[in-house]
């Protein structure tokens, strides 16, 4: 039996409790998994999850370059509570010089929550 209400409930995301930026979380990264170098800097982010383990984040990035740049999803990573690092699902966004843009990025279904969103310059 198909129930419309259960389908709608599967897509509900809740804002997770945030982790303070001044807390050092340093898991070993023996495989040197890092985002691609870019001119983007994370200004802030809000992480969300669904009951089924869906992980998303509203991420605000700024283009620190004096020229336009194209953001691609391999330029930002999430650090999960098990120490794993993952890029979001495919996403592209054009930025003008110095432009600040917020976007919703999806990190798929994961058992553990996102602790941090970061870039590498």
Structure annotation, total helices = 1
In round numbers, the mean pLDDT is 91
Q: Rg to the nearest angstrom?
A: 16 Å
CATH fold type:
Immunoglobulin-like
Uncertain residue ranges: 1-7
Widest sheet: strand order? 1-2-3-8
Tell me the name of the CATH class.
Mainly Beta
Number of strands: 9
Helix content: under 10%
CATH second-level architecture: Sandwich
Structural class: mainly beta
Query: Element order, helices and strands?
Result: HEEEEEEEEE
Main sheet, how many strands, which sense, barrel?
4 strands, antiparallel
Distance between the termini: 51 Å
Total number of domains: 1
CA-based shape: globular
- Percentage of β-strand residues: 35-45%
Write up what this structure looks like.
It is built from one helix and nine strands. The chain has 121 residues and is mostly beta strands. The protein has one domain: Immunoglobulin-like. The strands form three sheets. The chain has a four-stranded antiparallel β-sheet with strand order 1-2-3-8, with no helix packed on it. Strands 6-5-9 form a three-stranded antiparallel β-sheet, with no helix packed on it.
Question: How would you describe this structure in keywords?
Answer:
single chain; mainly beta; disordered N terminus; 9 strands; 121 residues; globular; 3-stranded antiparallel beta sheet; Immunoglobulin-like; 4-stranded antiparallel beta sheet
What are the SSEs and their pairings?
Blueprint: H1 4-10, E1 14-15, E2 40-49, E3 54-63, E4 69-72, E5 77-80, E6 85-86, E7 92-95, E8 100-109, E9 114-118
Antiparallel strand pairs: 1-2, 2-3, 3-8, 4-7, 5-6, 5-9
């Amino acid at each position: 039996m198909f129930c419309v209400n259960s389908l709608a409930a599967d897509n509900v995301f809740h804002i997770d409790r945030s982790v303070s930026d001044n807390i050092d979380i340093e898991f070993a990264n023996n495989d040197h998994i890092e985002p691609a170098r870019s001119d983007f800097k994370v200004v802030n982010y809000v992480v969300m999850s669904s009951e089924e383990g869906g992980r998303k984040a509203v991420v605000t990035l700024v283009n620190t370059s004096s020229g336009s740049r194209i953001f691609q999803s391999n330029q930002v990573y999430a650090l999960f509570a098990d120490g794993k690092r993952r890029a979001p699902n495919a996403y592209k966004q054009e930025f003008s010089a110095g432009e600040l843009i917020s976007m919703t990025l999806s990190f798929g279904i994961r058992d553990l929550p996102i602790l941090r969103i970061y870039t590498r310059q």
